Amino acid sequence: MSSELEKIIDNLETVFRGDAWHGPSVLEMLNSLPPNEVDQKHGFSKRTIAELTYHMIAWRKFIIEKLKDNIHFTLETDDANWGTLETTSQENWKGLIQLFKDTQKTLVDLLEEKDDDFLTNRVPGEHYDYYKLLTGLIQHDTYHLGMIWVLWE
Amino acid sequence: MGVMGIKKEPMAEINEENLLVHRIKTLLDAGFHGSAWHGPSLLEAVKNLTPKEASFKTPTVHTISELIYHITSWRIFTLKRLQGDVQHQINDEKKNFGSAPKVDKFELETLLMELSLSHDELIAELGKKDDNFLSELVPGSEYDYYTLIHGIVHHDIYHTGQISILRKISNANSEGLEDDEISSRYFDNGL
Questions:
Q1: Using an 8 Å Cβ cutoff, are B125 and B79 in contact?
Q2: DSSP, residue by residue, A88-112
Q3: Which residue of B has its CA nearest to A153?
Q4: Nearest alpha carbon to residue B89 among B149, B139, B153
Q5: Closest to A11 (Cα-Cα) out of B32, B143, B128, B89
């Protein structure tokens, strides 16, 4: 039987790439989107699809920094959380997807060096452990994917 | 608490045999009730939901009431499998999303009650298991219980994200409309 961390990495990858139990994966959805939709402003939603996409990347960056013991790292500004106008423009859509893939790879590579004991370690500067953070990240992906699906209307 | 108080199950002891089940239960409960890492839980997202919001239809997405039915359907599916029922299937649109895209107050309350009941039953059933069952294949499927139950957690939250945006669109679209456009057929009968 594979370890708990291996299973979490597997979930992180299937929700990102495909064959996820819940439905469409991150890349399946993002690759299907017409680029002219991604920076559309909707009156009813504060965020565009590209901003939500950047937000999913931003939390991967957060974990990568925490894995490097960067205790003070936080996503403080709006730009850090939701991206700049430039990074979330339709012109940069392909670049944003590439950034997402690269960040995912960096995260998975770092996690693969760890073992199960690490899951109950406290995240530096936070009150929760890596189990909660990593399972939370996967849930966070699906939460925003659900939003993106409806914003695509 | 009055005479009809809640019957409390004895707390299952956490040990080496059920640690993973305990963790999954915690995730499932947090995604459903609250305190989840990602943000709003399902129940937080449907708090004070009105029949009008629950019935709002966009061209390509199910209504919130259909999504609630759908979330409940898959909880019941999981529960049935856990209880050894290998026959139960969700194999058509009606079993998956129900047949009431538009609901009145009474129907919405029923939907939410069934959702909560299915959740409580699933949590109770999981409490009887130890970690070994997680790697068992779900009868009739190609995946194990670990994948199914984490899948349920992700599925809940995926649809929670949809519900939160659907509510926003519904409210942006309904400005100026009469509040009682969808009234209760049941309560209108003077019952």
A1: yes
A2: TSGGGHHHHHHHHHHHHHHHHHHHH
A3: B60
A4: B139
A5: B143
Predicted ipTM?
0.96
B126-149 mean pLDDT = 96
Domain extent listing, chain A = 4-151
**Check: CATH 1.20.120.450 for A4-151?**
yes
Q: What is the mean pLDDT of residues B10-32?
A: 89
Task: Examine the pLDDT at A24 and tell me if it is beyond 50.
Answer: yes
- Give B155 to chain A, closest Cα distance, Å: 5
Taking the C-alpha atoms of residue B115 and residue B95, their distance in angstroms, rounded to an integer, is 14
Query: In B, which residues are within 8 Å of A128 by CB distance?
Result: 37
Is B161 within 8 Å of chain A by CB?
Answer: yes
The pair of structure tokens assigned to A97 is 């997807």
Q: In the CATH scheme, what is the code of domain B19-172?
A: 1.20.120.450
Predicted confidence band at B7 (pLDDT cuts at 50, 70, 90)?
A: low
**Which among A132, A140, A149 is the nearest to B162, CB-wise?**
A149
- DSSP letters, B75-142, are HHHHHHHHTT-------SHHHHH-S-SS--HHHHHHHHHHHHHHHHHHHHHHTT--GGGGGSBPTTSS
Count of beta carbons in the 10 Å neighbourhood of residue B79 = 19
Percent of chain B exceeding pLDDT 70 equals 85
Give the 3-state secondary structure of residue B182: coil
Residues of A with CB under 8 A from a CB of B: 1, 4, 7, 11, 15, 20-23, 43-45, 128, 131-133, 135-140, 142-151, 153
